[in-house]
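User: Structure please.
Assistant: Input sequence and predicted structure:
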Amino acid sequence: MNEFKVVAFDCDGVLFDTKAANRTYYNHILKHFGKPAMTPDQFAYAHQHTLRETLNYLFNESKSITAAFDYRRTMDYSAFIKLLKVDPDLVPLLKKVRPKLKTAIATNRSDTMDRLLTEFGLTEYFDLVVTSIDILRPKPYPDSLLKILEYFDIEPHQALYIGDSQVDAEAARRAKIPFVAFRNGMLPRQYHVGNLKELEQILEV
């Protein structure tokens, strides 16, 4: 029998299929400044890192980075939300998990997370949401996961973190929290699942 009290999720690639939205979002910014669309390597970086880190990586020059941030603030995110797809197994899983377990999100997203949860009717299913603007250092640093441990007053072995990228795995390792690799068998992990429904057995719900 496990001792889990909290299950925490990454957002992009776990709760949502965000590939189309993220690719379109960053390519829109690049196109505005006359730059080519993202390469596969650039997209892989964007999938794992914060908005700030990604724009720094894509523009790589202080004046251009500032301009990109300024332009980004004028953009309406509604056009990109419609490209997101919530995982079909998510809500059924959360209904089984709660209230036995507390639920949380640890994501490198910044100011779009609350809106996503509202738009898809998911706000009520999470007890805590930690974004990159809520902590000093984003993943792969463990700050977001340590904040979850502190908030719920639990030990690392009492939490479980589900992610799909190297920064997720590294954050979990540094926080000493058991990690579930989601659809990515190449990651170091305690568990691996191909879909969210498989978490029911791990969580014993």
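The radius of gyration is 17 Å.
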